[in-house]
Amino acid sequence: xNDRQVQTEKARLRAALRRLPASxxxxxxxxxxxxxxxxxxxxxxxxxxxxxxxxxxxxxxxLTGFLAAWLAxxxxxxxxxxxxxxxxxxxxxxxxxxxxxxxxxxxxxxxLPELPRLHPPYGQDxxxxxxxxxxAFTRDGRRLGRGxxxxxxxxxxxxxxxIGVANDCQIxxxxxxxxxxxxxxxxxxESQMIVCE
Length: 197
What we know:
It contains 4 helices and 12 strands, in the order H-H-E-H-E-E-E-E-E-E-E-H-E-E-E-E. The protein is α/β, with parallel strands linked by helices.
């Protein structure tokens, strides 16, 4: 399959997910609570370690409560922040999800623009684990993003365990991949935890 065919197939899959009825999607807060319970059982998320998270958008499981608890327990939290000059995302450390977030690029909550930014690549000594949203995932760890390649660039060369966070309806059987696509080590949904082979 050539690059154009891969892009066409990815676009078809994105469109299929957008056509899912509202009943296929769990309520984001309820899904987030179920996902958070599974995340809290993962050895990769050891207390006091460093985590790169995300702020939910649309149907994504809402993990604000989990991330606030992570900070309260002494963990280090990084969130993506869009950098206009490069047209890409960097990471920013945050300590307060109420005072340090604003509505940013694509209307997603992200850290205040004046906070220091860290640029990729990120070694495991900085980020022990990543929570990564997506449009769809396969059980072998393939991830379909929104199409701009933001997370592929953010994760290029990154250390740490990569955990895809999704709803059950976003787990699909097959998906085309390209060499630059970053694979997940595991997936967590509202009802399952999948170790990617």
